[in-house]
Amino acid sequence: MKKILFALASIICTPLFSAQLGNITSINEQNNEFEIKTSDGTVTKIIFYRPDIFRIWVGPNGQLTDPASEEETAIVVYDDNPIRVNQSEENDYYKIESDAIVLRIYKNPCMFSLYKKDNSTLLFEENKPITYGAETYQSINRNSDDYFYGCGMQNGHFCHNDRNIQIENIYDDNQNIWNEHGTPNAVSFYMSLKGYGVFRNTYEGGTYEFQSTVKTTHKENRFDAYYFAGSLKEILEGYTFITGRPFLTPLWGLEFGDADRYNDGSFECVKFADEYIDKQIPVGWFLPNDGYNMDFSRVPEVSEELTKRGIVTGMWTDKKLDFKKYVTDHNIRLFKLDIAWVGKGTKFSMNACNTVYNHIENNSDARGMIWTTLGWSGNHRYSIMWTGDNGYSNPDDWIRWHIPTVIGSGLSAQNASTGDIDGIYGGTADRYVRDLQWKTFTTNMMIIDNWKVAGEEWKKPWSYGEPYTSHNRESLKLKSRLMPYLYTYSHEAYNTGVPVSRACVLEFSEDPKTRGESGKNGVTKHQFMCGKWLMVAPVYESAETREWSFYLPQGKWTDFFTGKEYEGDKIIKGYDVTDYKFPVMVRNGGIIPMYPESYYNDNRQQQKPRDPLTFDIYPSNKKTQFELMEDDGLTYKFKTDLMYNKTLIECDPISQSDAVTIKIVGQYGGNGYEGMPEKRNYRFQVHGSKPQTVFIEMDKLTEINDTATFENAADGWYFDSGINITYIKIKSKKAKSSFSVIISRGTSY
């Protein structure tokens, strides 16, 4: 009897089917595609789309299939156009060579290795043939000094060394997917610091094991993978070349959003909009209904009233709506697709997001914006990736694990990703302030209250009273000032896949301390770069009476708030975070463009002026640049009609060490855009010691010795000795004009 039971157990535990690629029996090229046949009866295609991008496509039983290619739900958007590469035969392998890489295909059995162009610098090598069956996997040797990123939104993590990652979005009634270690928006992509990335073209879930062997498994009897070579940034560009670029967030989408539960879609949210106005707290958009107990009857009226106030209306909704009507007739520009609709995830979610996104773009001239969870590879083309209903477990600790969640999402090109301010349940005044602070430097931020009942307090920026209201207002006004900086890097994300909120390893990959999550090589798990120039180290614990620590990479850094200078390549200890201070550091050479604060005029209209334009400049010992990108913030006319304007700002320490030249090229690119100011007032904040003279072109600018006179002057300069900043004002100029500002600290001029 024991023998029978043992035999039955063996049968149960044995996979239904499992096989490996066998020995190569033939390799042929046709139309720039290589077809490999092996002794196990499979056919494998190798296709190069660029010198740095290729595909390995395995068809068991000789049948190549692509269930992820249906028109409405296709993950891959690149129109196949294979390039020609060179193929030759060596002793034990075939060599396929592009201008960037060498792919070795070993003969007996068929196995793959990838090298740089020199055919000696190894990027990866398989340690066994691709194995297929009920589950199909690739197994790759791991180098001891390698690091792995990607896999989509992995709550609480950005680096996956020594972890097994679920590539699956499984929703359950306990919402475990939305807590730390959950996977609300996993994707079938990873990349290695060694210089390669892999995207599995599938909708089937799986597991990625980053142990002594890197084993990537999906639950399907096929293998279909795209490979990318280069730096981490280059891999993200390649991945989004194949799967589509991240959507470009409208300018209003970068602002604070209110998605509290307005159960009847009523004017209650209009009342709160007026309260934002009265308290001078910027807000960009509202969702006036909750998506479950839905009442859409008053949404048209609500949208009309919010539009009068300069606020965009979205809808928290399901698939039953007449989307075209709401877009065309009622100016709806945002839809939240909740679990009630997209709870099946992956392919279902992709189809839903694609459908609704296209309703916006096909029935208006506006850019679409979707907010969803349970996304997949490719959803970044449409959606803000949401971490879900956070607050089910350890709500007071959730900022800590949201920081690596957001930066980890960015390492899969999920540029727009966020969680709810202060969580969906519970909340504290302290956590609200701290959450707003760091999300000021991310793409998206929103509040969503719990399923509140009568008598419960709303969780607004002012709900906790003073001093918290003032701190929250300060954060939101700062974000309104940072819009040109954030929007420029949003354009970069749209063009390259490189996110706005960046893991430090993206900017400092040569610094070992930025690479992991623990130990000496993992000290940046809870900090990130905002664009190229700003380092943010959020305070994620209650820290009013303690000092904060964070790491600065090599070089000189300047405190964005205080002007204090720091030398990098070390951990900064003892940073004062009392009274809700927090570290934001500017990299040496930084150029930060800023608009004025948003405000509300007497007609209760939200004003978002783009004039004057201020440049906050941190000169270094070498030339640095910033290409400011501006357009209407709403449409794709920047793409279709070149209706945009680029302004080049260049900071150049000229040959004499005692002078700096700031060069402005007012029309560096584009044809201008609707609403572009004809003339512009410019302001400069230049960090460093006091100048002797300031010139505009060759005209000497007047020094002003007190702030009141400076504020009222049309032009001039003023030096604040307390923070070592030279403030410069110049007379209004045509927005497309070019000019130079020379700051002389010696006798050269």
Task: Please give a structural write-up.
This protein is of the alpha+beta class and 749 residues long. Among the domains are: 17-243, Immunoglobulin-like (Sandwich), CATH 2.60.40; 505-580, Immunoglobulin-like; 610-744, Immunoglobulin-like (Sandwich). The chain is built from 14 helices and 48 strands. It has an 8-stranded antiparallel sheet with strand order 2-3-4-5-19-16-15-13. The chain has an 8-stranded parallel sheet with strand order 26-25-24-23-22-21-20-27. A hairpin with a 4-residue loop joins strand 8 and strand 9 (111-116). Helix 9 (429-439) packs parallel to helix 10 (468-481). The chain is globular and about 85 Å long.
Present the secondary structure layout.
Blueprint: H1 2-13, E1 18-20, E2 24-30, E3 33-38, E4 43-50, E5 53-59, E6 86-89, E7 93-97, E8 101-106, E9 111-116, E10 122-125, E11 131-133, E12 136-141, E13 148-153, E14 164-167, E15 185-192, E16 196-200, E17 206-210, E18 213-218, E19 223-229, H2 232-243, E20 256-258, H3 268-278, E21 285-286, H4 299-308, E22 312-317, H5 323-330, E23 332-337, H6 339-342, H7 346-362, E24 370-372, E25 383-386, H8 398-410, E26 417-418, H9 429-439, E27 445-447, H10 468-481, H11 483-496, E28 501-502, H12 504-507, E29 528-530, E30 534-536, E31 547-552, E32 556-559, E33 565-567, E34 570-576, E35 584-587, E36 591-594, E37 599-600, E38 606-607, E39 613-617, E40 624-630, H13 637-640, E41 645-652, E42 659-669, E43 679-687, E44 693-696, E45 699-700, H14 707-712, E46 716-720, E47 725-734, E48 738-744
Parallel strand pairs: 20-21, 20-27, 21-22, 22-23, 23-24, 24-25, 25-26, 39-43
Antiparallel strand pairs: 1-11, 2-3, 3-4, 4-5, 5-19, 6-7, 7-8, 8-9, 9-10, 12-18, 13-15, 14-17, 15-16, 16-19, 17-18, 28-29, 29-30, 30-35, 31-34, 32-33, 32-35, 36-39, 37-38, 40-41, 41-42, 42-48, 43-47, 44-45, 44-48, 46-47
